Amino acid sequence: MLRHLRILFDNFTLALLAVIAVASLLPCSGTAALVFEQLTRLAVGLLFFLHGARLSRQAILAGAGHWRLHLLVFACTFALFPLLGLALRPWLAPWVGPELYLGILYLCALPGTVQSAIAFTALARGNVAAAVCSASASSILGIFLTPLLVGVLLEARGAETDSLGAVGQIVVQLLLPFLAGHLLRPWLGAWVERHGRTLRLVDQGSILLVVYTAFSAAVVEGLWHTVPVEALLLLGVICCLLLALVLGSTAWLGRRLGFSLEDRIVIVFCGSKKSLATGAPMAQVLFAGAAVGPALLPLMVFHQIQLMVCAVLAQRYARRAEPLAAQSAR
After folding, report:
1. Please, is 56 exposed, middle or buried when counting C-beta atoms within 10 Å of its C-beta (0-12, 13-18, 19+)?
2. Domain boundaries in the chain?
């Protein structure tokens, strides 16, 4: 029982819940909020610098030739998700309110995860090289595509946003540190790999800092007075529905287009996941002040649900893949 709970609720998830509780009870404001905002920007820059230093060109080149697979993953990430968000608007907007619906649209515009998508693909015995390429490219493309998609989605919703200005800010705050880290990989790569576990704490700490700063601003502006418990429960149901639709679509498309089982695993895990590591820093740029908290809520709920579901799904894929591998070895 405890083992299954550890799979569903890891230490980082518990830390996220704790940070939200602290921000709800002890939000930072005034001068403290300005200090935390500056610390958050520095932490996010360091986060993307380390992401760039970790990125292996050899691993990307190994899977880069599988262009049909990558195009399908990108289509699911940056087209299928946003179309679902818009198509479900008549039901979602009245149910959860405009603030949380904005967060759902933001969730739909984000790139996929990197580490967890690759880890689940490896656990399920899929095409790991292709997963590395797809997940890494999705993360990089998202720096440019996500602000533009958010602009298009908000315009469809009747709001206005400066998409090109947001792209410029994101390039400066996220892409430049990422490129600097990658350019320094020949000198830093071995050190980063040796200290992978320690540096993972930097990744998680950066996200926790973003979440605390965002939720503090939202709580000061009355977040928990405007978002009732019923809306949060309904948000969980909506995230489950959204994930189920995308998982079903990616699995069906993979079979329909004739991909192998190993490649279908990549499509499922890379095309259905959304990145909290990228989404939390981007929200600081794309949304103003107290709007960041509600914008992040759907992403945080979806993040946990996708980890829980994909952990179970990867184990099922692994059990199915073993007999096939054994038969081919005979």
Report:
1. middle
2. 28-318
Question: Interior CA angle at 149 toward 56 and 237, to 5°?
Answer: 90
User: How far, in whole angstroms, is CA 142 from its chain's centroid?
Assistant: 10
| pLDDT tens figures, 42-95 | 887 887 788 778 766 666 666 667 889 999 999 999 999 999 999 988 888 888
Cβ-based neighbour number of residue 99 at 10 Å: 18
Tokens of 9: 């609720």
- DSSP percent split of the chain into helix, strand, coil, nearest 5: 85, 0, 15
- Angle made by CA atoms 271, 262, 64, in degrees to the nearest 5: 65
* Sequence-distant (≥ 6) Cβ neighbours of residue 63 within 8 angstroms: 127, 129, 130, 131, 132, 133, 134
What is the signed CA dihedral for 235, 236, 238, 241, rounded to 10 degrees?
Answer: 170
What whole-number percentage of the chain has pLDDT above 70? Answer: 86
Output phi, psi for 284, to 5 deg: -60, -30
> CA 192 to CA 250: how far, in whole Å?
33
Q: Are 86 and 216 in contact (CB under 8 A)?
A: no
The number of beta carbons lying within 10 Å of the beta carbon of residue 207 is 25
The reply to whether the predicted model has a pTM over 0.70 is yes
Please say if the pLDDT value at position 167 is more than 70. Answer: no
The CATH number of 28-318 is which of 3.30.559.10, 1.10.3210.10, 1.20.1530.20, 3.30.565.10?
1.20.1530.20
